[in-house]
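hey m, so remember when u said the tokens were messed up on ur end? i reran from scratch. heres the input so u can diff it against urs
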Amino acid sequence: MSLVVEHLSKKFGDHVAVEDLSFSIENPGVFAFLGTNGAGKSTSIRMILGMLSRDSGTVTWKGQPLDIMKEKVGYLAEERGLYPKYNIIEQMYYFASIKGMKKKEATSAIDYLFSRLKIDEYRKKRAEELSKGNQQKVQLAAALLCNPEIIILDEPLSGLDPVNADLFKSIIREERDSGKYIIMSSHQMETIEEFCEDLVLLHHGKVVMRGNLNDIKRERGRENLTVKADKPFGEIAQRCGMTLVEETPNGSDFKVRSEEEAGRMLKEMLESGINVIKFDLREPSLHELFVEKCGGDVNED
């Protein structure tokens, strides 16, 4: 089984929202779909789901065009969308009916998910009476109601407190470990690194980075260095060709041209009698790769 997205493009008038987007998810797991605000993520997701027409491109699942009315697909949208005046349980049965679920099957799924998400007490509450976090739990339950094979999570942890963020993460792990194909979009880079091996990064509608995150980091090499010491070492750093990026209470951050340069700097510091408290040479983080590729744009999506 595989989900294959090929050559998706979309224009709104003269504005190119998405240009030639292609990627595939060959095996179960969590795939990261990233980009700045306005990069085209939401437009792409809607095209993948068939909620928005495509100017070009195809989306296939198991070798056939993806039809979310026939396949089990769960979607947690960034724009949360419960009906505010209706009670929660009525809405859940409505969502289940759209997926073609029988009432007995829906009841069993609702009972499990509401217990798992700790929202049993809100069954008869209207959506508008719930906090944003609890509304988000209800919508995650709705996304998982039909036991979907494909799950799309657009900013699933946005606005959650640490306890509920951990709960969502544990559920995402369970879905991943049970063999689901999950696309996750998030601005929380640490969460993406925690869950995702493969990714696509969009910038102004175009793919600017794609592939296995570990491979991308490995190709870049260990180019970031943080050093903390009990004496000033600026002259040694300059002599060794280090480029200072930032001074923080945690140490001095440098860009390194080679691991040999870093080794030379460490050697000179030790030979100069400097007590090295921290010397951390590492690959770039996803956050750093994101900023490098996208330049910190903050347009609205």
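this time it looks ok to me. DSSP finds ten helices and 14 strands in the chain. if urs says something different then somethings off w ur setup not the seq
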